[in-house]
Give the backbone structure.
Amino acid sequence: MRVRDGVKHSPLVKRKGCAVRDALIIDDNPDYGYFLVSLLARHGIQARLETDGRQALKVLASGEYGLVVTDLMMPHIDGIEVVRAVCMRHPDLTIVAISGSACKIRDVLHRALLCFGAIAVLAKHVDEDRLIEIALASCGG
C-alpha cells in the first residue's frame, strides 16, 4: 500500500505482456459515461460504455478488458454488486468505482469498496489525472 493525500492506495500492477487496451465504463448517465470514454480515448485507451450493470457483466464475460470503471448508484444492480462480481469472476482486473454521493456516504462506500477489491474510489467529477494514471497502468499503456 502507498499513501497519497492521506489515503492508502493499492500499488498499480502492470501485467507482463498485457496487450489489452480496452476499458469498460459502467454508468447509468450516458452523458457522463461518454465523457469518460472520450477522456480515455484521448490517451489511447478504447472504452466501451454500458449503462446497465447487468449487461456490463455479460459484456465483461465475453471480452478482454484491462480496466472497469463503474458508477456506484445505478438501477437494477449497483456499483457495489458490480465490484463484488468482477472481483469474484476476474480477480486480476483493475476496478475503479466512481460516485457522486454525498461525502459522508461516499466515505463509508470508499472503505467498503476498497475492501471488495476496487483499486480506487473517485468522486464525480473524477480526478482525471488519477484515472488516466490507473488506466494506463491497467491497459498496457
Q: What stands out?
A: The radius of gyration is 14 Å.
